[in-house]
Amino acid sequence: MESICSITPIECSQIKKGHHIIIHSRPTKVVDMSISKTGKHGHMKVNVTGIDILTKKKLDFMGPGHMTIMEFSPIRKEYNLALMEDNTLICTDKNGAETYVNIDQESKIYEEIKTEFDNGKSLVIVVITAPIMVSPEKYVDESAVDSFKEDRE
Fold this sequence. Notes:
Helix content is 7%, strand content 58%. It has one helix and eleven strands; from the N terminus they run E-E-E-E-E-E-E-E-E-H-E-E. The strands form three sheets. The chain has a five-stranded antiparallel sheet with strand order 9-8-7-10-11, with helices on one face. A four-stranded antiparallel sheet has the order 2-3-4-5, with no helix packed on it. It has a two-stranded antiparallel sheet with strand order 1-6. A hairpin with a 2-residue loop joins strand 2 (20-23) and strand 3 (26-35). The protein starts with 5 loop residues before the first strand and ends with a strand.
């Protein structure tokens, strides 16, 4: 399966904070970056620190400024939580179609969602979808619960 996210090449020297790029095959949001001046070999170096948007783990990258990496646009969707079964959230979209979302039962967000849901609150789950690089030029999508909020409707 190919990615449904928009993926485009970008030169490392053009990366800015807030951009979404692929670092070490993972979808990453840039939280810090610096560019060093050209050295004796004539190439500037780019240092990028990012957070994997699916796992929330920190990733670092250093490379030449002229190197091309991939930038992408993540997809965010909201679903109404209908039921929780083990590590699966059973949700519905605004058209009533059912969707199954896997979630790590050991995660902090799982505990927060479970507590609120068990207290009878109606919740909206925000799911983010981003590309994972499985080989050069081949990407597959992976989704994760990004956040949640109480349904006010």
